[in-house]
Predict the 3D structure of the following.
Amino acid sequence: MKRVTIKDIAEACNVSKATVSYVVNGKLNKVSPEMVKKITAMMEKMEYVPSLSAKSLAGKGSKLIGVVIPQVDVTQKMIFDNPFYSEFLSGLEYYLRQAGYSIVLSVINRDNCFEDMMKKWNLDGAVVFGIDNEEMVKALGNQKMPILLIDSYTTNRRFYRMNLRDEEASFVATTLLVEEGQKNIALVTGKVDKSILLQRRLSGYKSALEQHHIPFDPKLVFEGDVTYEYGVQAANEIMGMSDITGIIATADILALGILNQMQASGKNIPNEYSIVGFDDTYQAKMMYPKLTTIGQNISRRGELAGELILKIIHGEQTEKEYFMDFEVLLRETTRKRD
């Protein structure tokens, strides 16, 4: 849909662009009250959204990169509660700042938020996290700007993507616990039906169990919000089951809740429970004991995302899908069973 401009409003009201500009910029002393009312009504009727980028209005690149995090549940404070995002954004912002770009951060919870954001800021490109919902993919696909998706497995070839090898990483994490001698391994995760990424991690968990001839038990999969609080809740449920001794958390923030709650309940980690996290956020190194986790160098990943989106904007050759490496970081929350 074509963006409504000051020129469109001026033509509809039969006034000059300067007159409309005065109203848009709050210089109401230069326009009669009747004309202000007429122009304001026309702006609402035509759904005019003022551009916040002067450079874009001058016909130049805005040097603005949108960073979009979809959030279906608007009551969650996901960005600030989960250190994955702050570490990723730190690397992304640093790289883009060195290249003369700035970021515009937005959390969206409905399909048309994409269009509202793009029109408002006149972005040169966007980095978008975790898009799996087909309606959101469709809405995003209507935008004409370069877009890089992070942790998305959409098959839409319109987009460039940066992913971790999630199924393989989960397979390795599960195998680590199996080789320690664990037989009953819980998986604490976000809501699998809402995320292809989490479906891949569940698949890797299942594959590792199958390869080691351990039956998959759906009762050992605990699904909830990816928050510290749900980690605490899952820990209580796990401690109420007598046979679980190994735990994989699909995010370090979940592992932190599990670890703290178990220790507060008098459990010894890793003697009674082995715990493996995902991400290697700064918290993983600060926990006591320090968390064994699947590391993906989040800040560096953010820098690479900045490099990729600028290559896409400038028309440079790059892969449609870029996979990040991961590593197993053995620390203090796992040990071999006797």
